[in-house]
Amino acid sequence: MIITDHIHLLPNPLIGPNDDRIGPRFPDMGEAYDKYMIKKAMLIAQEQGIRVHKGVYISTSGPTFETPAEYKYFRTIGGDAVGMSTTPEVIIARHMGLPCFAVSIITDLGVEGKIAYTTHESVQHEAEKTEARMTMIMTELISTI
């Protein structure tokens, strides 16, 4: 999934003293993910016959996997995928004025009636199946920048 926006449910990484030389106290997050890079990545995926979706990523602290009620809540508030990373790094990068692009490999479905027992190993196994395709999209995207 190409991330088009996020819902950050972790502590904000910008809490604390601000160094104005690096970025503003309150950076704009209206376009956290660069639209040009999203469009370009979608085109690369299409040209390579790789099925991708766009969506909203929700970050939580972990280290646990979600309950069925949490999956339902995340869907209700507008999330398409949930994980334990990505958004703090994007917030810091946007604070510094850097354009961002991110993907999330979907490793398990948090859909009612389709929720399966999940382990760290099963997540890694599913991610390995997609790694080469994601790497190809990222490599091609980087070569165009």
Describe the structure.
The protein is of the alpha/beta class and 145 residues long. The protein has one domain (2-144): Nucleoside phosphorylase domain (Rossmann fold), CATH 3.40.50.1580. It contains four helices and three strands, in the order βαβαβαα. A three-stranded parallel beta sheet has the order 1-2-3. Helix 1 links the parallel strand 1 and strand 2. Helix 1 (35-48) packs across helix 4.
Q: Mind sketching the topology for me?
A:
Layout: E1 2-8, H1 35-48, E2 54-59, H2 68-76, E3 81-83, H3 87-95, H4 120-144
Helix pairs in contact: 1-4
Strand tally: 3
CATH superfamily: Nucleoside phosphorylase domain
Total count of helical runs of at least 4 residues: 4
Shape: globular
Largest sheet: 3 strands, parallel
The quaternary state of the protein chains shown equals single chain
Reading the helices and strands in chain order gives EHEHEHH
- The percent of residues in helical segments reads 25-40%
State the separation between the terminal residues, measured CA to CA: 20 Å
Q: Could you tell me the CATH topology label.
A: Rossmann fold
Under CATH at level 1, the class stands as Alpha Beta
As residue ranges, the low-confidence spans are none
- Tell me the radius of gyration: 16 Å
Spatial strand sequence of the major β-sheet: 1-2-3
Structural class by SSE content: alpha/beta
How many discrete structural domains? 1
